[in-house]
Write a structure and sequence with these properties.
This protein is mostly helical and 148 residues long. The chain has five helices and no strands. α1 packs antiparallel against α3 and α1 packs across α5.
Length: 148
């Protein structure tokens, strides 16, 4: 049985699947972030523990995200090249998220913490996809000549 996304053109299919994996990861990251905030007794926005909670959610979401990107999004197998590319993309993504988080806290100070994190994670995710495209390349199957 084919997945519905299998009928989409390859570039649209990978972007759509990346969005599905990324959205799932975003919710997992945010839930872990919120649980860490509870564990740390709701530190003030901008406090060191606030950023530690954000980073914990980020780090715990990495492994399932990598595995699903390989299997579902790009149809590849885990290897050193795409793992390195994934970690590079995620390092850039984390820098963007941690850089944007204080700006978003100031700009969206009337929003709840989880809504702010959704905006920040979404922006980082879009850039993450573009970087991942460079490293998650499926090997092309050789075209066999038909028998004569």
């Amino acid at each position: 049985m084919k997945l519905l996304t299998s009928y989409l053109p390859p570039k649209i299919r990978s972007a759509f699947r990346f969005a599905v994996v990324g959205t799932t990861g975003m919710f997992v990251q945010t839930w872990i972030f919120m649980a860490a905030l509870l564990l740390f007794d709701h530190p003030d926005k901008g406090a060191a523990l606030y950023y530690v909670a954000f980073a914990i959610g980020y780090l715990l979401e990495l492994i399932p995200n990598y595995l699903f990107l390989n299997w579902y999004t790009f149809g590849t197998k885990p290897n050193i090249k795409n793992a390195g590319g994934f970690l590079l993309a995620r390092a850039i993504n984390l820098g963007i998220q941690l850089g944007l988080l204080p700006l978003m806290i100031l700009w969206l100070s009337t929003w709840r913490d989880d809504y702010i994190s959704y905006v920040v994670i979404f922006i980082g995710g879009c850039i993450n996809y573009l970087v991942c495209l460079l490293f998650f390349k499926k090997k092309e199957e050789p075209i066999e000549e038909p028998p004569v």
